[in-house]
Amino acid sequence: MIKVRNLKKSFGHHEVLKNINVSVQPQEVVVVIGPSGSGKSTFLRCINLLETISDGHVYIEGIDLADKKTDINKVRTEVGMVFQQFNLFPHKTVIENIMLSPMKVRKVAAEQAREKGLALLRKVGLEDKADAYPDSLSGGQKQRVAIARALAMEPKIMLFDEPTSALDPEMVGEVLEVMKQLAKEGMTMVVVTHEMGFAREVGDRVIFMDGGFIVEENVPSELFENPKEERTISFLSKVL
Amino acid sequence: MDFRFDLISEYSSFFLKGTMLTIGLSIASILFGTILGLLIGLGKMMKNNFLAQPFAWYIVFFRGTPFLVQILLIHFAVVPLFLGKTNAIVAAILALSFCSAAYIAEIFRAGIQSIDRGQMEAARSLGMNHLQAMRYVILPQAFKRMIPPLGNEFIVLIKDSSLAALIAAPELMYWGRAMQGQYFRVWEPYLTAAVIYLLLTLSLSFLLTKLERRLATG
Ligand SMILES: Nc1ncnc2c1ncn2[C@@H]1O[C@H](COP(=O)(O)OP(=O)(O)OP(=O)(O)O)[C@@H](O)[C@H]1O
Ligand SMILES: [Mg+2]
User: Is A40 in the pocket of ligand 1 (CB under 6 A)?
Assistant: First the structure.
């Protein structure tokens, strides 16, 4: 579903990703952990080309993102992304946030888009907030709307970049719950997070990144119980 | 000092004509200036430095030279070059549009750049192309922030239109000067003009404040 081959990314002379190789199978939930600045966000953003690829390849269902001829807008409709800072559109209501892209990009009729949007809001438990503006929502509610907005495009893959890091502790649970549900339904997910509980419970595989490399990857129980690399051990000793 | 209201009322039809032209010049220049300003602002924001350069020079020139010099240059040199002979109204509209466009371009650029980067990223990650993201996500938000500085710029434009009197465009200030020449009075014509300009700029401020309220959400 996602295949990353020899991916490298530099900002100027600063090489942030150094030869990343990963494959993600359909319906798999891959959790990415690692210290700050290790390149987790950059890696995730290369998967939907929010960052250009300096070298190597990223394939989404066989389509090479590094190929200049690839229609990136089309690929992005298949890859949803949820940001740490929510990035809801403040000038639009909750339901308008969700309806906008299906209507403008997929050319779905307003009525259908609305119906679908309301169904998604029901799914994330926010049906009553359809006509509210984002500013009036709590952080947890905003993030759930952001997830619903991404799902409205019916993506095959969902990317999460620290979706709960900007939340007050009491709101983390409600967002993780939605993500858990999504995983259960078989969504292919790549999740950057510091929530080790979530990684353990929901992840099929955990990737530990450091210094622009994938240092170690394994099923959660193995990686957390029996880390093999020195750097993994020292990182886990700090966060667990 | 005796203040001759009767002279003002005698001259009122000229003031009315002048006011109409001032309004006309202002509206036309606000329209052209805004469109041109948007284009120049977009031009200056182009990633390709080579292509963006001329737009930057445009802004440097029109912000860095006196409006009086610009209007005289356009009236006596530029318009005759293209039309054969000059035309004060055309020259006034061009000068006001060109000059305000330079400021509007910067207002526009600042407005767009003030919108958080995450907004563009969210829109693009949902599959919108750059144009759609601009149109549905960035510009509506930027526009709201641009209203106050745009309002200031439009007020400056209305006031600057008085300099068109110097190229004999028969707008408000032109008739003020004419009245001074005819009656050898100074208070009546210039105070009348001042009051009318004040009414125009205040009405514009009022309209823009209302627009801003209408667009406020959340
Ligand atoms: N647009 C950019 N321009 C220059 N350098 C960047 C840019 N984005 C990221 N970097 C650098 O790349 C490195 C990796 O950043 P990245 O955001 O991918 O790390 P991260 O693992 O997500 O960290 P965090 O846990 O803090 O989010 C950092 O050193 C960062 O300063
Ligand atoms: Mg990050």
Answer: yes
